[in-house]
Amino acid sequence: MSNSNMRNGVKRRGKSYSFVVSTPGADGKSKQVWCSKDQFGQTLRTRKAADDARALALTELANQTYVKPTATTVGGWLSEWIDSKSVSYARTTLGSYRDRIRLYLIPTFGTIPLRTLTTTQVNTGLARISKEGGMGGRPLDDKTVKAAHAVLHKALNDAELDRLISRNPATGASLPKSSGTRHDTVEVISADQLRAVLENLSTHRLYAAFYVAAYTGMRRGELCGLHWSDIDFETKRIIVGRNGVMVAREDGGEGRRKRERIVKRPKSEKLRIIPVSDSVL
Q1: DSSP 173
Q2: Element (H or E) spanning 40, and its range?
Q3: Predicted confidence (pLDDT) at residue 31 exceeds the cutoff of 50
Q4: CB neighbours of 274 closer than 8 A, spacing ≥ 6?
Q5: Is pLDDT above 60 for 236?
Q6: 90 within 8 A of 263, measured Cβ to Cβ
Q7: Pairwise CA distance, residues 211 & 264, whole Å
Q8: pLDDT at 248
């Protein structure tokens, strides 16, 4: 292509313009990079727009904050990022990350251009998730908001490593705090109330699980992962070493989400031993 219409690093190409800058390559040598979009991922329709975009790029290069303009959105990056982690994370972790992306992050940040996402936008988005991200627009607890932020932070860290953004805007984000009224008081039932509950459940098909949970304090996942071999009838102990959890999976071409149960060892690989009474056995 002829350079006859090149001026100050800007060239007209058809109905739009492109500009060129020299960027440091991985080998330390400079290489020319042509860009046809501005920092917002918009096509450069005029020479002035191209001149302004190139001036900004040169400033960013001087400050070592330059990243090549891209039209990628936060939602697009989150989807690409989580797919790339399919072999890096355990299925349970991957499933929970997908849920946080699908339920909270993409609805809140999905359409924002990745390159322009700011810490202020992250703060505003997290506040919105906290206030109305629950079922039916209800508030979310602080733990869930913190978990959503953690996934966003991980994804943006990798975007920074890939030089899609100059810095991670989630790093300086302020996590919103709820009023705490939902967790101020915990009501504990009495022994008589517990016996009444179990009596009402006596014909339920899961009565044994309810009874064991009531008198051992075992968690739901621990009960779901319990095997007969985990029960020592001689020493009257239950050895907790498995956790049954539900994980989401993508089903076929229609993309409908299903869940399946898997049993896994705890992260710490430590066993928990619970002494039990004769009534539990």
Answers
A1: P
A2: none
A3: yes
A4: 216, 217, 218, 237, 238, 240
A5: yes
A6: no
A7: 23
A8: 64
